[in-house]
Write a structure and sequence with these properties.
140 residues; mainly alpha
């Protein structure tokens, strides 16, 4: 009898889930990034098979903890990808210090969208508005 992925994960201990996070496929990583254990979440981010598109997806997921999003922002290889940075800034769960550090990297159009995004903290929105005005006056 075949078990679904969630049933298999329910029967695994932490060490088995850690191993699966490092060696498993895309669907396993997608399930394990939401694991309540922080070690399992961290090992998903350290998986050698992790692709840029998966990280872009993780960065935009609002059901992940702030710790996972902070972990993504601490890995330089991921932060070279503009889409990851943009998704992190627009994610309401991203810690404010991470967002404030990343938002100056945004292009003018993405910065303008951020000024009207009601999901992000007010501090980030107002800072984005100020930067947008400054860039606009600096160019013209």
């Amino acid at each position: 009898q075949r078990e679904t992925l969630m049933q298999r994960l329910a029967h695994m201990n932490v060490v088995q889930r850690l191993t699966l996070a490092l060696k498993g496929g895309r669907s396993e990583r997608l399930a394990l990034i939401r694991d309540p254990n922080k070690l399992v979440q961290r090992s998903v981010l350290q998986s050698p098979r992790l692709t840029d598109s998966e990280v872009e997806g993780f960065a935009s997921m609002s059901n992940l903890s702030g710790e996972v999003l902070r972990g993504i922002s601490n890995i330089r290889v991921f932060m070279k990808n503009y889409t990851v940075a943009k998704n992190l800034v627009n994610n309401p769960k991203t810690p404010l210090d991470v967002s404030l550090h990343l938002f100056p990297r945004l292009t003018a159009s993405d910065l303008l969208k951020l000024t009207t995004n009601k999901n992000v903290p007010e501090t980030l929105r107002s800072s984005a508005t100020k930067l947008h005005r400054k860039r606009k006056s600096g160019v013209g």
